[in-house]
Amino acid sequence: MRKHIFVILAFVLIISTLFGGCSFELRSIDSLMRPPHTAMESELKSSINKLLGNQISYRSPESGENHSAITLRDINSDGIDEAIVFYVNNIDTSVVRMCVLTMQNDKWLLAGDFSGNGSGIYTVEFADLNNDNDDEIMVTWLLFDDKSQKVLSVFTSALDGDALKVSACLSEPYNLMSVADVFSDNNKQLVIAYSNMTRDIKNSTLRLINIDKNDKVNLINETALDSRITGLLSLQSDIEPGNETQRFFIDAMIADGQCITQVFGWNATSKKFVSMLNDTDNPDITLRSSDLLCKDIDNDGVIEIPLKKAMTESLNSDTSLGYLLIWHKADKNGLVPCEHYVVNLLEHYTIYYPKSWKNKVFVRSKNVERKWHFVNENDDELFTISAHNFSDWDDSNSEGLEMIMVQNDTVYCCSVTDIGLQADITAADISNYFSLNI
Q: N or C end of the chain, less CB within 10 A?
């Protein structure tokens, strides 16, 4: 058994070394933001130095898909990449700048040079916001390394004769931002959540911003968020089942360690955001600890809201060191429970509860023994999940146990009783239902 664990640990170490901290998804190669290859980079930097001088240093975005100080992207759909460059003048390194270079007649020319709206670059992204089939450049600037307070700048491009010119059309403070087709007309808008916590003003708003074909910026709607909000945590969106309305889920802090979720959708009749969750009579309907944010827990394309609830435990349990985590779908009638989990805080794992277990499987916790016994309504044991120190683990104490996972110095195992097998519970089920707490 120990040999198998070492093999697993070695495999995990190799994978962690090769891919640690990364997530992967398939994308069209043409849509990726590309850093220049070495030869082109040398030519680019030579052109940049000729245009801007030698007294510059390059700066890179801190987050997002692109981390290069020089990014290649075709922003005017002519089949030739432009170069988006971030830098500082060495005389004043406190001001980050962005310039855009375009290739014309085999020569790099300056299409625009701009002073940034912050002391650093958080992200550079691209989206067609004015419905001209060309990408706008979306740059998020950081204010003194405060990643919660950011400024979004949007830059558009157009031909001036034969020359490409890039212009700034928007500068907007924000905390959270989404690019979405709010009107369901195949055009994209900016949805911005902003919490203004200055000394004299404390309010939070959700804004809908449109950029028209003439690059004019229009504030379509500004909706006030809960007046208790002290900070914004996440902004996510989905399509409401049944009526195809795009909804926006805003997780926000209202007190130390506590958060709420507000849900808004666009109302075409009133032309404003309206609440898609009936929380008027109970504004704390989504109140919970701030470590639980919304997400699509069951991968059905619909965002769920997590809430904690006390577990129903066996009378023979130790003092509870866990809770029931219930994920809810939101609609105009309130919250509808859809996914149930039991969370073990002491041993840092979570067990999914299928619908067939609801009100039928309970916990008998034995914390000193590092075991949770799962029992039926008669307190008959169905299965057990146990945690073991890796240094103490060997074949002599593994009889009847199925190993679920090895994490750091802990071995997680399960065992199923005959009563559990008769209830159609298997070790494979438990392994599939088991996950470590994030």
A: C
Q: Give residue-wise pLDDT tens across range 334-349.
A: 899 999 999 999 999 9
Burial class of residue 213 in the structure, from the number of CB atoms within 10 Å of its CB (0-12 exposed, 13-18 middle, 19+ buried) = exposed
| CA atoms in the 13 A half-sphere facing the CB of 355 | 2
pTM reported for the whole predicted model: 0.83
Least confident of 40-49, 92-101, 416-425: 40-49
The CA-based angle 244-306-332, given to 5 degrees, is 40
Q: Which residues of 225-237 are buried (b: 16+ CB within 10 A; e: fewer)?
A: beeebeebbbbbb
**pLDDT score for 264:** 95
The answer on pLDDT for 61 being more than 60 is yes
Q: Backbone phi, then psi, for 350, in 5-degree steps?
A: -130, 140
Q: What is the DSSP string of 17-44?
A: HHHTT-------GGGS-BPPPHHHHHHH
Residue 377 CB partners (closer than 8 Å, separation 6+) = 360, 362
CA distance 185 to 180: 11
Q: What percentage of the chain has pLDDT greater than the value 70? A: 88
Compute the residue count for the chain.
438
Check: CB of residue 247 under 8 Å from CB of residue 264.
Answer: yes
**Long-range contacts of 321-324, Cβ-Cβ distance < 8 Å, separation of 24 or more:** 321/345, 321/346, 321/365, 321/367, 322/346, 322/363, 322/365, 322/372
102 in Cβ contact with 82 (< 8 Å): yes
Q: 107: which 2 tokens?
A: 């020569």
Is pLDDT at 32 greater than 50 in this prediction? no
d(CA 175, CA 140): 10
Q: For residue 9, give both structure tokens.
A: 């640990």
Q: How many CB atoms lie within 10 A of CB 218?
A: 10
Which tens digit of pLDDT belongs to each residue from 315-330? 777 777 889 999 999 9
Let me know: does 205 contact 221? Beta carbons within 8 Å: no
Tokens representing 88? 């500082």
CA 406/CA 391 separation, integer angstroms: 12
Element (DSSP H or E) covering residue 427: helix 427-433
CB 417 within 8 A of CB 381: yes
pLDDT in the model for residue 18: 45
**Mean pLDDT for all residues in the chain:** 87
